[in-house]
Write a structure and sequence with these properties.
The strands form four sheets. The protein has a seven-stranded parallel β-sheet, with helices on both faces. Strand 7 and strand 8 form a beta hairpin. With about 260 residues, it is α/β, with parallel strands linked by helices. The protein is built from nine helices and 15 strands.
């Protein structure tokens, strides 16, 4: 890295000395350079900063560790994810337009769609789109932008607007963290806008998660439990949610 790049990153490290994150646009303004210049600074493996969904964080900040590893997640708890998805898919009706979130939790739902005569799937996740594309009779809408390999999903300012322009019957939402007081969160900031747009737009919002996510906080907050209509989960998460006064919320228990 050249001297000016080092100086810029030292300034940003100082701004992030208390932890948290800094929007790329704000960081560029702080350093008096373009966002593209900062992207070049951060592209070096020597950089102490990392760009996550349009936000800068310190590479050594424990709040953002471990970084989400989609390949590792894909092989975890497959049987449980299949049961969760089977229960969630029971809400689908023929003719529905479905929003399917990114990650690996909802991938086992895709085979459940093959028996319907007319469905439309909306997603910003490449792995979901690839699985849906193999199904006959299911129309696919893939929302595009800048590809983020870490979650096999797309980031773009226009994605949220596209979601809001669609008539979505059911949104299937995932979370890396579900906290009874602090709400719903994920690892990546670029997922926040499409998740929020789906929660605002869909006629029915269905949150699907396994209880390892319960009482967990991740960096990017995107909503509250009050923003969903149905929760499909199991174990301690289902038990503790059952004891709470949430008259609006329908709970679906998956037995493992």
């Amino acid at each position: 890295m050249n001297r000016r790049s080092v100086e810029r990153q030292e300034r940003l490290l100082q701004a992030l000395s208390g932890g948290g994150s800094l929007r790329l646009a704000d960081a560029a303004m702080l350093c008096g350079v373009s966002e593209m210049t900062l992207r070049r600074d951060l592209s070096s493996s020597e950089s102490p900063l990392v760009l996550m969904g349009g936000h800068l964080v310190r590479r050594d900040d424990p709040q953002f560790q471990p970084l989400y590893d989609l390949q590792r997640q894909q092989g975890r708890r497959i049987e449980l994810k299949t049961e969760l998805c089977r229960s969630a898919a029971s809400f689908i009706e023929d003719g529905d337009t479905l929003f399917i979130d990114c990650g690996t939790t909802l991938l086992p739902m895709i085979p459940e769609l093959s028996g319907w005569r007319e469905l439309t799937v909306v997603t910003y996740a490449l792995n979901v789109a690839q699985a849906v594309s193999k199904l006959d009779g299911v129309r696919l809408i893939l929302l595009g932008g800048l590809y983020q390999a870490v979650s096999q999903s797309f980031e773009g300012e226009d994605i949220a607007r596209q979601v809001r322009a669609l008539g979505i019957n059911r949104a299937f939402i995932t979370a890396a963290g579900v906290h009874p007081e602090r709400g719903l969160s994920c690892y990546h900031f670029h997922e926040v806008a499409p998740k929020q747009a789906a929660l605002e737009t869909a006629a029915q919002r269905i949150l699907v998660f396994d209880d390892s996510k319960w009482e967990t906080l991740r960096p990017a907050f995107y909503g509250d439990l009050e923003d969903v209509d149905v929760v499909v989960t199991h174990g301690r998460a289902w038990t503790e949610l059952k004891t709470r006064s949430m008259e609006w919320l329908r709970l679906v228990q998956v037995h493992t």
